[in-house]
Write a structure and sequence with these properties.
Bound molecules: S-adenosyl-L-homocysteine, magnesium ion
Strand order of the largest sheet: 3-2-1-4-5-7-6
Strand content: 15-25%
Oligomer: single chain
Low-confidence stretches: none
Number of helices: 7
CATH architecture: 3-Layer(aba) Sandwich
Distance between the termini: 45 Å
CATH superfamily: Vaccinia Virus protein VP39
Order of helices and strands: HHEHEHEHEHEHEE
Length: 210
């Protein structure tokens, strides 16, 4: 019998272009979503069938392209890094998805005006961790009824404030860990959303608007 591992239980299909994007990301240290996280995200999209998705943190367009392909959702995605923005445009055009995936070149904290008239069925937050709460507060007013917010990189490699490794971290990293812990708390205490945080990939959360 073939060896059954967690990763071949994910049942993700990658075409040649997906593999090319993954290769580019790994060679250039672009932190694209882990396979396990992607399987979770695609599962949510399969169930929810969002018409329109907002993504914060495009990088090279890998997750945007994958999310679109599940059920043809229209995607708005925000990226502040010029190199990443250009790479994303190039990849989205190679995939012939310019009419479906709109990349906004801007800091997400300043991009509200570009999307303020749109309603989103799902928001995927995958950018600078320290700002997750600000992103959440800024963009959730655009979420439709029973909309969902999914966040990546929620567990900071397993480090939490009271873990053994915490004290060995730099001041900056400790600050980030505290910010993430505050975000966890804010999500779990938010009565308008039902949130669960999972040890999937690099840590993923889903918050569903009640
Ligand atoms: N979602 C992508 C990976 C994103 S990596 C994928 O899985 O394929 C995180 C990206 O967020 C980086 O490219 C970084 O430049 C961008 N980013 C970080 N903070 C941001 C901000 N405040 N506004 C816009 N983009 C941001
Ligand atoms: Mg991520």
């Amino acid at each position: 019998m073939e060896n059954v591992t967690a990763s071949n239980l994910l049942n993700l299909e990658f075409d040649e272009f997906d593999l090319e994007l993954k290769k580019y990301a790994h060679e250039n240290n672009v932190p694209i979503i882990f396979d396990e996280g992607l399987a979770f995200l695609e599962g949510i999209i399969t169930l929810k069938r969002p018409k329109r998705i907002l993504e914060i943190g495009t990088a090279i367009g890998y997750s945007a392209i994958r999310m679109h392909k599940v059920c043809s959702s229209e995607i708005y995605t925000i990226e502040r890094n010029e190199l990443m923005y250009n790479k994303a445009l190039e990849n989205i055009s190679k995939a012939n998805l310019e009419d479906h995936i709109h990349v906004i070149y801007c800091d997400a904290l300043e991009a509200f005006e570009f999307v303020k008239n749109l309603e989103f069925d799902m928001i995927f937050i995958d950018a600078a961790k320290a700002q997750y709460l600000k992103f959440f507060d800024l963009y959730t007013p655009l979420l439709s009824k029973h909309g969902a917010v999914v966040c990546d990189n929620m567990l900071f490699h397993g480090l939490v404030e009271d873990s053994e490794g915490y004290q060995n971290q730099t001041r900056a990293v400790r600050g980030l860990i505290r910010k993430l812990a505050n975000f966890h708390k804010a999500l779990l205490e938010n009565k308008d959303y039902k949130t669960s945080i999972y040890d999937i990939g690099d840590g993923m959360s889903i918050s569903v608007k009640k």
